[in-house]
Model the fold of this input.
Amino acid sequence: MKKTIVFALTLLLLIGCRHNRVVFPRLVELDSLIAIAPDSAAALLEAIPSDSLFDTEDRAYHALLLSQARYKAYIPATSDSAINIAVDYYVADNKGSYDCRIRSLIYKGCVMTELNLPDSAVYWFKAAEATASPDDHANLGYILFRIGDLYQYEFVASNLAMAYYQRALPHLKESGLSFYEMASLSELASLSSLANEYTDWHYMIPAMTKSLSQNDMNYISANLATLGMNYYYNNKDYDRTIELLSKEFNMPVSIATRSRCHLILAQAFAAKGDVDSAKKHLDKCIINSVIDSMHYYRASAIIDYAIGDIASYYEHDQVADDMAHNILIASEAAKLKDTEERYILQLSENEKQINSMKVKQMALTILAAIALIVFYLLICRYKIKSENEAIATLRENLKTHRFHSLEQVEMSEKMRESMTKQQALLQKMMSLYEQNLPDEKFLPQIKKLLKGYKPEAGFWQDTYQYVNLHFSNILIRLKENYPKFTEPYAKVLALVCCGCSNADIMVITGLGSLGVVRNYKSKITHEIMGEEITIEELIERYRERNIAKFVQVERNAKMLSVAERSLIYPNPPQKP
Done:
């Protein structure tokens, strides 16, 4: 029975794991689908049952994608419960990727905007701005654009809206988000014209150019409306105003833009004295905001003045002035609120930094103390290790010196035997010479004697070893440094080091004559080494190096003796 229960639980666990591995790749695919078909992605995401998502990360990812797809598919948000799952995981718990974290903050702001909670929307968009990487131009541009929209349309704070649109522009240009760049330019054109009594044309031309290149009729019409207002308020060119704004009604414009055009046209016709046309356009106005109401009462005042109703003119003009004053107060209040929020946020950040600095200072103090202790222990250990290494090195040097001494004695004996044989050969040659034989008899015997001579096996190897030991590796060094120092030259130099005469060298090496031997000796120093010295001076130079080396070895041996005595007797007895 127990085995059956365990098997069933294992099977259920495997099915759950398998199901989860299938869902997660499906979410990645739906993430890519949102940009192409958000309505289809939203339907597919809603079809995924919540109980199929066992992993916390999967649930957060699903909630983020669902909120994003609904927003892009223009499905009105009824609550923020879905996006809160993503925010809790990616922001509060600081888990997941940067992309998911920044998206969860952005769509939290979007949902709060749809729920008509602009204060909360601004808070979350600013949190997204603080989280965004400085080089994430696409997200930063969009975030700043949305904050500018909120200040403009929710808080009627045109100065703050302009500041955020201006900050969004370079990011939008860098990321290539042409639509939002065009929208920012158009909003800036409208706001800067309004703020500067329709004398500011700085953003007007770029906005019009961008909207025409995008062929976006809504923003083309909005920019035409702004341009018409500029002609109306600044130049008092009512005919040009009527000409521009009349084009709006042949375009697919928004209700707000169309209503604004009717308001300006009503004022333009009234200023020209065409009261009937002014009233016709005024009746078609739809009031969507406080600013529209202000323009409505201003247009009504102008019409009243045109028909001679002075009492109504003053009444409507006063209402328009009061509204303008309230708009200004609301704008300043929003600006003050934003400043206060920034100040409180800065105080909180400063407090966090101070606390963080205190913790860091304490941690650095502890680390410094630990580092000093470790450093002291390392110095002590290094000192002991250095003393032991020095004694070991001295012992090794002494051992090497003793070995070389024995090796030199052995090599000297070998060379003495070899030289004795060479002397015997020379004695035979001298006896032939003393017989005063004629050349035709002397030369054949000499050649026969030399032809029969061959050095013993291992002769040159022993000779080279002997010379290198007694002359500080002279043959090895010359072969390493001078490629032209070949074997024949090495044999001649080795025999010279052994004290052989030119005749000895001629016999041992088999060179043709004494002149050839002298030529070899001269080439070693003059041509191969390029030095103006004799071969004897070269040999003496390496002999001195060898003597200096063994003098140092002797000193090391004495130092070793002193060091070993100090280890045995660290505190020698003082004299009485």
